Every structure is written in structure tokens, then in C-alpha cells.
Amino acid sequence: MTIKIYVPLDSGSIALGADDVAIAVSNEIGARNLDAKLVRNGSRGMYWLEPMVEVETPNGRFAYGPVTPKDVASLFDADFIAGSDHPLALGPTEDIPFLKKQTRLTFARCGIIDPLSIEDYRAYEGFAGLDKAVTMKPADIVKQVTDSGLRGRGGAGFPTGVKWNTVLGAESPQKYIVCNADEGDSGTFADRMIMEGEPFVLIEGMAIAGIATGATKGYLYTRSEYPDAIRVMEEAIEVARAGGILGKNILGSEYDFDMEVRTGAGAYVCGEETSLLNSLEGKRGVVRAKPPLPALEGFLGRPTVVNNVLSLASVPIIMDKGAEFYRDFGMGRSRGTIPIQLAGNIKFGGLFETAFGLTLGELVDDIGGGTATGRPVRAVQVGGPLGAYFPRDLFDTPFDYEEFAKRDGLIGHAGIVVFDDSVDLMKQARFAMEFCAIESCGKCTPCRIGAVRGVETVDKIAKGEEPEAQIELLHDLCDTMKFGSLCALGGFTPYPVLSALTHFPEDFKPRALDIAAE
Ligand SMILES: Cc1cc2nc3c(=O)[nH]c(=O)nc-3n(C[C@H](O)[C@H](O)[C@H](O)COP(=O)(O)O)c2cc1C
Ligand code: SF4
Fold it and tell me: How far is the CA of 269 from the centre of ligand 1 (A)?
């Protein structure tokens, strides 16, 4: 039997040397004349172990890592293809604690299969959701998604079924599904991992969304900084088309659905849905006023579902296993699982999919192992650049939309960026304002001007120009931005600033900020 050796093609793994490891593995297979095959899989999401090489044995998959090209010959010498011991041996992959503790519903096959093999995908129950959807009425699909409690994973947490129902009810000769794969939040990479490691689950989710709402055309909007994801997705779309999953009469049904990839230049604001739609139409990425909602007047003025990658990629399992199965995971109004991304200064950085409800402390200290530097954790920023900084005192906050909101925080796209005790929160507050000033689309004054004034105000505190009055002014400015901005870029920038002021007031003191050095 041909032995399969897996080396990830995920761009995070490639950045750590996976391509060179793959070449070395291939060379050794040839030189030793072995009956073995190199498979490029997605990443399992344990980035401190990448490049992680796996081998399929009669006793399951065994993992080795992190592997460098010069380790490869010694792995073959030690007979790793039989799962033998080696200094880099990690044991059976599924037994690695970081993986074992997870509940992988959205990422069920990521890292396990060859991302471009429909046969592999089917062998692991892929397309079971679409198989059911093509036999159902659109309204019944929408009901199932609504009943599952799925909420948008892009940031706002809006119920997916409610959005789909609006598009289903809209009368129009043409409707669209737009997948938001812009993934601009700091510390996030889950969308990219799905696109590179399990593209068919996203294609399946988009096709189901099309059937459910009457949309026959889909666009996947991503950024030019994701060249590997773009390549894998484009190839996967071709494979899916050839396999009857996309195009006319999908899976032999009465339903048509096709899709293509569109690439933006990588502006944070182009992740905001209306700005994204402008960019998709070839216009400047400026935010549109709502109403009209994109669900009624979206792409080219037609009813459009705009959903995040993870929202759409969660739909196939809901269709396959049922709304109740999915709903059973989670807490409160946060149902199902959430792929959490552990990033920044953290020992075990990577993707951890789990039911909603673990506390921030469990995630950072127990799962993430604390900081990579070994120094104490001082703050974490959850939810991207617009998310609040939480101190250790708030580490009992469960991962849940409402629980975070109660403490003036947000989950966003579920990225957690960890900082040790060397972090300067006044500098982080300045950075939040500066980020907003740079990324602002310029449409409204509180954001366009407010963010610039915010930077100046923090600089005045640092220079000791009436610091107390400036802090008061900063609060005022945040108030104006929060309530006067047209979209969440300007409206949520106050979250990191106010949380820094509230939880770390001791950092807002006159002193040299050392900004130019960065
Ligand atoms: C400034 C800004 C940036 C955003 N960036 C993203 C993004 O990169 N990806 C994303 O899915 N949603 C992003 N959103 C949220 C989208 O506007 C929208 O809520 C989301 O695509 C809806 O999909 P969902 O309901 O599946 O989450 C952003 C919002 C704002 C205000
Ligand atoms: S808040 Fe900022 S990004 Fe949003 S519409 Fe206003 S200027 Fe544009």
C-alpha cells in the first residue's frame, strides 16, 4: 500500500519552511525508492509545530514537528513512515492535547484531507449538507439555519438565517452571495486556513446559501495579500465545476449556482460589507449609508447575502447534522462552535475551535500556555484592531457575544492578541487612533477628523501638555466617534482607546513614547 506523507501547503506553514521540507521529503522518497506519496494538506492550526509532517500508518496518523529540511533524512532513517520514534515525534496527531481538546465542526477536515481532492472531501462526509439541500425547499433551508442559532462570524454576530430570509423574500431577477474573505482583523487567520485547507466546505456553504435565497451567482472577495488562498480557491472552484457541484443543475438538481474569486488591494475598510460591495463593483472602497440593506440592494443594486467565510463554512454541517445538533453547543445566545485564533505573544499560537463558553483565562493561560516570552500576560486584545484591551481581572469573561459586550468588549472575528507586561497601553491607544486615521474611508467627519485629533491628543498627554485635560478630551472625542460615525471603523475605535484608559490608567502619563523608532 502506498504510504501517504503529509506536508502542509498552508501559507503559515510555508512561511516557516514547509515548501523546502516538501521538496526534501520528495527527494528522499525518490532516492530511497519508496512506495510513498507526498500530499500537501492544510494546516492543523498548531503553528508552533509547523512545518508539521504527518504520516498515515495502519494505527492512524502520526505527527512530527517542527521539521526543517535537514531533519528529513533522519526521519526516514528512523523509519518514521511506520510511525516510529524520533526526537521530533509528537505521537498520534489526534492525541496532541491542543487538538484533542477541540470540537471541530467548521474545521472538521482541515489538515486531514488533500484540499483539492473531491474524493477526499466526500470520504469525510463532505457535500452531505448540499446533498440534502438540493432536495429541500429554500424556506426550509433558511429555517434550519435560523434554528441552528448561527450568527455571523465576521464581527457583528448578526443571525445568519434572518439575513438569508430577507434575501429570500426579496423579489429580483438576480440575487447574489458574496463571501467576505477580506480578513483584515489583527491576529486572525481562520478564513485563510479554510480557503487553503478545506476550500470545498466554503464552496458547499455558498452553494447552499444560493439555493436557500434564490441567488445563482457568488463572489468570494479576498485580498491580494492572500495569494495561496486565491490559488487554492480558484483551483477548487474549477474542480467543483467539473464535479457538478457548481454550474447548471448542481448535483443533477433544478438549482444553478456558480461563483468566482475577486481580489481587493487590501484595505481594512473593504472588509466592511458596503465598502466591499463598492470595491467588488470596481469603485473606491467607500462605505455606503444603510439603509438600503445589502440584503435588499447590494451588489449592483440587487439583493445580496454578504457573509463571512466561517459563517458560510459552518452551514454544511448544520444542513448535514441538523439545527439541533449545532445549537446544542455553546452558551446563551452564542450557539455552536467558534474557531478562536490565538496570536501575538503566546506560547501555543494557532487555531482552536471550541463551543462558545470557555473563559478568556482558560483560552490564554491553559490552552495558549501564556506568553511566548515567559513574562506575565498583562493585556489581551480580542476582536481585532477595534476590540477592547482586557486586563487579567476580566479573564473570567466567557467567550460569548453578550458577555463580552457587557464588559465593553467584542468578540469580532475571534482573534485574541496577547501582550506581556512590557506593553505600553498609551502607545496602543495611540496606535488605535492612528490605524483609524490611516484606514478611514473618509466619508464621515467623526472618523476622518476625529482619529487624527485622537493621535494628537495622545501625543499631548505624552508631552505633558495639560495631561488631565487631554484625557478628558480623549473621552469626549471617543464619545463623538462612537455615536457619530457612519460605520464601525470610526464607531468602534473608541473601544481599544477607552479600555486602555479604563483598565490601564497608570500608562497615561507624560513621557517619551518612542514612536518614531517603530
Ligand atoms: C471596518 C470593518 C471591517 C470589517 N472587516 C471584515 C472582514 O474582514 N471580514 C468579515 O467577514 N467581516 C468584516 N466586517 C463585518 C462586515 O461588515 C459584515 O458584518 C460581515 O461581512 C457580515 O457577515 P457575517 O454576518 O457572516 O459576519 C467588517 C466591518 C467593519 C466595520
Ligand atoms: S466611520 Fe470612517 S470608515 Fe466608516 S464611513 Fe465614516 S469615515 Fe468611512
Answer: 9
Question: What's residue 513's pLDDT?
Answer: 84
Q: Is the C-beta atom of 345 inside 6 A of ligand 1? A: no
Please give the number of the atom of ligand 2 that sits closest to the Cα of 448: 7
- For residues 474 and 468, the answer to whether their CB atoms sit within 8 Å is no
Task: Give distance in angstroms: CA of 448 to centre of ligand 2.
Answer: 7
Tell me whether the omega of the peptide bond preceding residue 51 falls within 30 degrees of 0, making it cis.
yes
Residue of 268, 272, 310 with the most ligand 1 atoms within 8 Å of its CB, for mutation? 272
Bond from prior residue into 291 cis (ω within 30 degrees of 0):
yes
Q: What is the pLDDT of residue 244?
A: 97
Ligand nearest to the backbone CA of 447: 2
- Residue with CA nearest ligand 2 atom 4: 487
Cα of 241 vs its chain's centroid, Å: 26
Report the pLDDT value the prediction gives residue 518, as an integer from 0 to 100: 44
What's the order of all strands across the beta sheet hosting 176-181?
258-264, 217-223, 176-181, 304-308
In angstroms, the CA 353 to CA 291 distance is 34
- The verdict on pTM exceeding 0.85 is yes
DSSP collapsed to 3 states, 50-77: CCCEEEEECCEEEEECCCCHHHHHHHHH
Burial 403-419 (b: 16+ CB within 10 A, else e): bbeeeebbbbbbbbbbb
Q: Does 191 sit in the ligand 1 pocket, CB within 6 Å?
A: no
Task: Write down the pLDDT at residue 512.
Answer: 87
Mark the ranges of the chain whose per-residue pLDDT is less than 50: 517-518
Count of all residues that appear for the chain in the document: 518
Query: What pLDDT sits at residue 516?
Result: 55
Q: Indicate whether residue 443 lines ligand 2 (CB < 6 A).
A: yes
> At CA 13, angle to CA 8 and CA 14, rounded to 5?
95
